[in-house]
Amino acid sequence: MPVRTAEAEWKGNLMEGQGRMKLGSGAFDGPFTFKSRMENGPGTNPEELIGAAHAGCFSMAFSHQLANAGFAPKRVRTRANVRFEKSDSGFSISEIVLETEGEVPGISDAKFQELAEAAKKGCPVSKALAGTRITLNAKLVSASSA
């Protein structure tokens, strides 16, 4: 398996400095600042990128779980809400809430929920974030409500 890379550079002090993060594939190269991380300033932040990675990983893992169980998912869309908070021990990612929606013909909601939980546990990014509370809200939708 290939080794994936990303890099970041920060210039200046924490409050007024600025940085750039980029993916080794070249798919993303963008700025980040104190305001983009702690407020709502322009640019990205590490937590947003972790959320994107988690949403992507979970969607793939869930699609795989569904296919292995004999279902053909039409689509799986996931949003990761990453909670970044300050506590007595400092800043941390305290929780990630995965909100997923899947269009999967012929599956019961109970089976859909079971496979979604298995995907959450098996997703490599979920495993990498093992110390973080990960909550899953999974919704099965029909083609007419998609």
What does this structure look like?
The protein is an alpha+beta fold and 146 residues long. It contains 4 helices and 6 strands. The protein has helices spanning 34-38, 46-68, 109-122, 124-128; strands at residues 6-11, 18-23, 29-33, 75-87, 90-103, 133-141. A hairpin with a 5-residue loop joins strand 2 and strand 3 (29-33). Helix 2 (46-68) packs across helix 3. The chain is elongated, with a radius of gyration of 18 Å. 23% of the residues are buried. The model has no long low-confidence stretch (mean pLDDT 95).
From the structure above, extract its key features.
GMP Synthetase, Chain A, domain 3; 36% strand; alpha+beta; elongated; 3-stranded antiparallel β-sheet; single chain
Topology (elements, then pairings):
Layout lengths: L5 E6 L6 E6 L5 E5 H5 L7 H23 L6 E13 L2 E14 L5 H14 L1 H5 L4 E9 L5
Parallel strand pairs: 5-6
Antiparallel strand pairs: 1-2, 2-3, 4-5
What's a quick, concise take on this entry?
The chain has four helices and six strands. The chain is of the alpha+beta class and 146 residues long.
Inertia-based shape: elongated
Number of extended strands: 6
Task: Please tally the helical runs, counting DSSP H or I stretches of 4 or more residues.
Answer: 4
Q: What is the strand arrangement across the widest sheet?
A: 1-2-3
Tally of distinct domains: 2
CATH superfamily of the largest domain: K homology (KH) domain
